[in-house]
Write a structure and sequence with these properties.
The chain has two domains: 18-74, no CATH class; 79-124, no CATH class. The chain is 17% helix and 34% strand. It is built from two helices and ten strands; from the N terminus they run βαββββαβββββ. The protein has helices at residues 24-32, 79-90; strands at residues 18-19, 36-37, 43-51, 57-63, 69-74, 96-97, 101-105, 107-109, 112-114, 121-124. The strands form three sheets. It has a five-stranded mixed beta sheet with strand order 1-5-4-3-2. The N and C termini lie far apart (46 Å). The structure holds zinc ion. Zinc ion binds at residues 97, 99-100, 104, 115, 117-118.
């Protein structure tokens, strides 16, 4: 594959984080608020959460022992999750994250309601 000029960033460096496996277990731990174990040993500290185009989220993490950077891709909202949040908004209740549970409120980001921990928009408007 043709690479454009310039040195390729080291895998695991801040500009080229390593992808974590997108398995159910890893995601379930993250949604429960548990610290994730690093593939290098130690734990992963959350550095930040971003929205990505298309409705998913990206969590940037740093390994506490190796300082390598990892990224966890968060799947976009399902139809059922969107319906749940829409019902809350229409019922005048505070919208909460369907994955993180009732303690985690969604926040406004422009026209969207986003979970600050998932980076995922679960509803728009209102
Ligand atoms: Zn969430």
């Amino acid at each position: 594959m043709p690479e454009t000029a310039g040195p390729t960033a080291q895998p695991g460096s801040p500009s080229n984080p390593l992808p974590l496996p997108r398995d159910r277990k890893t995601l379930a731990r993250y949604y429960r608020g548990e610290r994730l174990r690093s593939p290098m040993g130690g734990f992963l500290e959350v550095l930040g959460v971003k929205e990505v185009e298309g409705g998913g989220g990206r969590v940037l993490l740093e390994c506490s022992t190796s300082s390598l950077r990892y990224v966890l891709e968060i799947p976009k909202a399902s139809r059922a999750e969107r319906a749940q949040v829409k019902a809350a908004l229409e019922g005048g209740r505070d919208p909460v994250c369907p994955r993180h549970g009732p303690q985690q409120r969604l926040v406004r980001s422009g026209k969207l309601w986003v979970c600050p921990l998932c980076g995922v928009p679960f509803a728009s408007q209102r």
